[in-house]
Amino acid sequence: MTLRDVVITGVGAVTPLGVGARALHERWTAGACGIRDGEAPCADFTVTDHLTIKEARRADRSTQLAITAGDEALAEAGWTDELPYDSELIGCVLGTGIGGIETLESNHDSLRDTGPGAVSALAVPLMMSNAGSAALSLRHGLRGPVFSVVSACAAGSHAIGTALRMIQHGEAEAMVTGGAEAPLTPLSRAAFGKMNALSESGVSRPFDARRDGFVMGEGAGVLVLENGDSARARGARILGTLRGYGSTGDAHHITAPHKEGRGGARAMTIAIGDAGLTPADVDYINAHGTSTQLNDRAETLALKLALGDRAGQIPVSSTKSAIGHLLGAAGAVEAVATILALRDRIAPPTIGWEEPDEGLDLDYVPGTAQPLAMSNGRPPVALSNSFGFGGHNATLCLQAV
Amino acid sequence: MATKTTPQDIETTVMEALAKFGADPDVLTREATLEEVDVDSLDLVELTQVVEDEYDIDLENADFKKVKTVGDVIDLVVERVG
């Protein structure tokens, strides 16, 4: 069976660098950082600029971010006036780590302070982890496969990989996919803080010797994927190709990655093979790069394991140096950033990287963006890694056009 | 309640609640149907919470069966408050 090729025709993002995928790409590439006071909120996002009062009231903040990023992605794909395919052949898979935790917490406050009668009738539809995909389906009339996936900080990449498979296997002509997270709440801060996952210095500096944990952020990333033949037939503008996907489990520890990065390495190897490529074809790595001691060491080892000598020859940078860690949205936002970087043939920087750590000796693109060196005449290829608590590993393989 | 609730008070409470839920103020009149002001079953559950708290009454889903317009909703609450 020959699998169909899958192209990206629209991207959207709401991130700590602003509203819009271009804000993310251009500001990160220019070295801007959206972290303030140790967190990375979407400070430029005003919900009423994008949603009606009713729409906003019917959505947790995480879903509000997803809807806004989705509107941008669909507009770019040229879907605004009319869906290009039968609505039953367009689905939506979004990822989230936690779901509507802001809604959960505020309703728990009401329950504790006032009683069961004070809990909102909207609590369930707002906090359910599938609220994002449901909202995009409702908003755009998507009647194909619609659901959300939950795999902590790998969820965004798992969602996109799942959507890829649905088009490859003919379950859908097109998919709206990505991830959203709005975890800047008291419980979530306290909980991640207790497990010493958060940076005490409030600085996200992946792969630097001084890294001391991740900086939590919020946001959403959405991509429109289409069956390549159908997209070309309708004259769509194609941003890039989603070439491959690999997904593995560590079966090692509930939070720590495998010390040698074996699970992560396998995800990369599978993604490269799924794309029909070899390590020599990979030109750029968008790393998971959380700025935790454990991840950045294990990921460096995983890259060496999967790519061999090639790991030391190509740029490896982390979007989290600019926007912190968006948990279940991270993989989606990073896929958006990766495809735009490939389009511009550039490797955006790992902001704040200054001090090398022993054994962490790859080219982490310190300080300023680098032009991507092309290994041969074809459009550049990148891997985007996402690893989640629970030992979930997901890698996407993307190529420019 | 210290002072007697008037039907006008109830109308104000209901109208304010529906506006807060996102109903378009330009079409929000007594005569408008719930469909016209985009008020659905979830909005009615929320409205029930508001008026139950405000007037110490009990309303069930079934009470809304015959309700068609915004005025019907107001009249229902007025009747229960008595």
Helix-strand pattern of chain B: HHH
SS-based structural class of chain B? Answer: mainly alpha
Q: What is the CATH homology-level superfamily of the largest domain in chain A?
A: Thiolase/Chalcone synthase
CATH class of the largest domain in chain A: Alpha Beta
Number of strands of chain A: 13
Q: State the separation between the terminal residues of chain A, measured CA to CA.
A: 25 Å
How does the major sheet of chain A shape up? 11 strands, mixed
Overall body shape of chain A? globular
Could you please say which CATH topology of the largest domain in chain A applies here?
A: Peroxisomal Thiolase, Chain A, domain 1
Q: How much of the polypeptide of chain A forms β-strand, as a percent range? A: 15-25%
Query: What is the overall shape of chain B?
Result: globular
- Give the CATH H-level superfamily of chain B: ACP-like
| CATH fold title of chain B | Non-ribosomal Peptide Synthetase Peptidyl Carrier Protein, Chain A
Write the layout of secondary structure elements.
The complex is a heterodimer of chains A (401) and B (82).
Chain A: E1 6-15, E2 18-19, H1 21-29, H2 53-57, H3 61-76, E3 90-95, H4 101-113, H5 123-127, H6 131-140, E4 146-149, H7 155-168, E5 174-181, H8 186-194, E6 219-227, H9 228-233, E7 240-249, H10 262-274, E8 284-286, H11 293-307, E9 316-317, H12 320-323, H13 330-343, E10 346-347, E11 370-371, E12 381-388, E13 392-400
Parallel strand pairs in A: 3-4, 3-5, 8-9, 8-12
Antiparallel strand pairs in A: 1-2, 1-6, 1-7, 5-6, 7-13, 10-11, 12-13
Helix pairs in contact in A: 1-13, 3-6, 7-13, 10-11
Chain B: H1 7-20, H2 41-55, H3 70-81
